[in-house]
Structure formats: C-alpha cells, structure tokens
Amino acid sequence: MVVRELELDLDAFEGPFDLLLTLVLREELDLAEIDVAAIVVAFIERLAERKELDLEACGEFLVLVAALLELKARALFPDEEGELADLGPEEAAEELARRLAEYRRMKEAAAWLSERLGETRDRFFRLGPAPLAPQPDRKLAPQEAESLAAALRALAVAPPQVSLSHMALRFPPVTLFLERFRALLRKRRLFDFDSEVGGLSRVEVAVAFLALLELRKQGEIAIQQAAPFAPIRIARADVERSLPWNVRSA
Amino acid sequence: MERPLRLIAANPLDALARVVEALLVVASAPLSADELCEAADESAERVETALGLLAERYREGRSGIVLEQVAGGWAFRASRDAADACARLFERPVQRGLSQAALETAAIVAYLGPVSRPEIARIRGVAADSAVAGLVERGLIAEAGRDDGAGGAVRYRTTPLFERVFGLESLSALPRLDDLGADAEQIRERLAGVAEQRTA
Question: Are B94 and B135 in contact (CB under 8 A)?
Fold first, then answer.
C-alpha cells in the first residue's frame, strides 16, 4: 500500500494524498480548509480492506499526518502557542476535554437541525425579497420641496459636451511625403529636412521622417547630419557622389 | 341582496379577524403580534383572539393555507398535503440540503451567536470561511457587528429566514445545549482512560 497514492474525497480537495501534500507545501491549498480527520478515516478504511497490517504504510502515514496536523494547528491558532504552552499536562487535558465537549454538543445540535430540516421539508411558504437583515432607519433631515426641485433641476442639466478633438491623431500616408520629396528632388538636388517640414504638426513630421527613411532604403537619397540635432540634409543619390558634403563643414 | 362572505359568522371579532387575515396575506415575511396590533389599530388581546380564530380556520387538514407561528411572528404557508405540488413549481430556500460543515456552522451561530469566524473555526477545528459564506449567501445567517468595536472580526447571527426554514418559533425553541451530547466529564474520563492504557 502506498500512502502517497491514497485517494481522498474531501470537501476542499479531491485527489491523491501526494497531490494534497504538494499543494499544501506550495501554499496553493489552505490547510485550514482541510479536514484532517477525514484523511485519517480514508486511510483507515483502506487499511481495513487488507488482511495484513501494513506497518510501513502506517508509520509513513503517521509521520505525514502528524506534520500536517502541526502545520494546521499553527495556521489556525497562530497566537495561541504561548497560551497553551503555559498549561500543565492536566490543564491541557482539561482544556482539550472542554473543547471536545463543546464541539460534540455542536455536532449534536447540527444533527438536530438536520433532522428538523427533514421534518419541515414539506412546508412551503412565500418568500419576500430579502427579509433577512433588519433595515436601518434612514432618518433624513426635513427637506423643502423647492430645494429638492432645485437640486434635481441642477442634475437634469445636460453636461457640457466634452471635446475629443485632441484625441484624433491623424496619420497622413507616408506615400504623400514620398511623392512630395521625390517631386522636390526632381527640381532640386539638395534640401533641408527642417525647412521642408516647418509648420507641420509633430505627427506629420514623424511621418515625413519615415518617408525619408523609406527613400534612403530605396537608395534614392543620401542623408547627412553633421551632429545630433543639427539640420538634416538630403541629397539626390546620384548627386551625393559628385557633390559630397563635408561633415565638418555643416 | 348579496350577503358578504363570512369567515366566522356571528363572531364580534369577525371584522378584526378579516383585517388580520388580509395583513398576513400581503406580508412576505412573518408579522409579529405587535406589528399586527399596530396595523389593525387594535389591542393585543383582541388581536391574539383573532389570531386564535384564524389558526383554527387555517389549520392543517382543514385548509390549503395554514397559519403558523414562526420566526417570532405569524405567517401563512402551504398545507403539507400540497407539498408535492408546491415542490414541482417552487423551491424551498434550502431545497438541496446543507453540508455537514454548513449544519455545524449554523448550529454554532444559532447557539453562540453573534459569533465570529475565528470562534467558529476554534470550535470546529476547520476554517469556517466557506461554510459561513455559503450560509450568508443562502440568507440563513447575516453579519451582526464586529468583535470589540471597529477592526475586530465580523460577527454573525441567524436570520428570521433561518427560523422559518427550520420551523422554529424563535431561537429559544432550539433544544437546550446541556441536553445535547456527552458532557465534558464523560470525555475527560475517556481521555484519562486512553492515557492510562498508554502508560501501562
């Protein structure tokens, strides 16, 4: 019998014991939700199915369950360790007995409720909307009908239309600038990028620059800039060879 | 001339009984005797008598509607003979039953409430979060303040619906805790027995 393969069917978990341990250690499963007693019962049932007592499995199980119980006790009562540690063995037994008795009574009460539920199964009644929590009294200060009307009127006024114009980013097509630059280069051999895009919006300048890169990629132009932020100069590709700028001269 | 339909003919409380009957028909939750007195503008004594007349008229085996004293008040419900038919069309609030965890949690809240989740966990030895959430969702328990003012754990108590579902006149209709289960003395003896066996 392999303890780790013990199949469990608990309220909070269903699967092999091994997986439960893994999930608990990874803190993916809250041990406080696990009914350890049900694990013990499942183990004992499996044990009872066999004729021979599997001592090895029992030992392994005992160690694992003891560790689980300790972890769970710490999770449930993090600040109680000190309190219980102060108790002598007799007092601790007393406390344990008191708690067990309390729980036993509540189990009996639960059984009584369950029985009661069965007895009232055939009683149907009308159920209004949420008769549950007592409604708090809403005490409003006395109000003038006119001031209420004024407040409502203020609310009824349509809010001013919010302008969305700044949100419309218009992207002119790159081809527009491609054509413009090509036309320019047919007339002139050189031009200054800044002077051509002066007066355009930031977005348009960006698109114009994209067009520039595209032309360079096609090998139609040569681009020169003497230093960062210096004017960008564009020359027809065939011109560049015959008329090179000196970088230092810019 | 058409004669009015008489509920209880020739009784001086006839008119009041009809008013109480009407109030109970409109109500969606049990009405307390006080509420009935106030609405009917009558003395408690006369309303009690009228309720007695109605209870006799609307009783199990005599009428399809049964008047019952439940959840601290009076309310109409369907007779038990009609339960099967009702079940085909309607669902009781706890039709599908409650898990053991939910029943234990409900018992703790009913007996010890207002009580907080840590206290429930302490008694049951298992975290009560999901059981409490389930009972709140079903409307059987509700929040009732916090431990030691603001910042403390939320406390819970049972709702009128709880009393209604379990057919209780009030929480005092629950059996006395002392009558339930083994007492601490017995458990202590058994623990002592186990300890002796171990040392022997």
Answer: no
Q: A117 vs B165: CB contact, 8 Å cut-off?
A: yes
> What's the pTM value of the predicted model, to 2 decimals?
0.51
* Nearest by Cα to B31 from A92, A126, A222: A126
ipTM of the modeled complex:
0.73
Measured from the Cβ of residue B90, the count of other Cβ atoms closer than 10 Å reads 13
Helix (H, G, I), strand (E, B) or coil at A225: strand
C-alpha torsion B1→B2→B7→B9, nearest 10: 20
* Distance to chain B for A37, nearest Cα, Å: 10
pLDDT at A49 over 50: yes
- What's B2's DSSP letter? P
How far is the CA of A215 from the CAs of A109, A180, A203, B4, in angstroms? 87, 11, 19, 101
Which of A75-84, B27-36, B95-104, B135-144 is the least confident region?
Answer: A75-84
| Residues of chain A contacting residue B181, judged by C-beta atoms under 8 Å apart | 101, 104-105, 107-108
Q: Three-state SS for B157?
A: strand
pLDDT digits (tens, 9 = 90+) for A58-111: 877 887 788 788 778 777 776 655 555 666 667 777 777 777 778 888 888 888
Tell if the CB–CB gap between B167 and A124 is shorter than 8 Å: no
| Average pLDDT value over all residues in chain A | 78
Tokens representing B140 are 């059987």
Write the residue in A99, A110, A119 that is nearest to B100 by C-beta: A110
Q: Residues of B with CB below 8 A from A112's CB?
A: 107, 174-175, 180
With CA atoms as reference, the chain A residue closest to B141 would be: A132
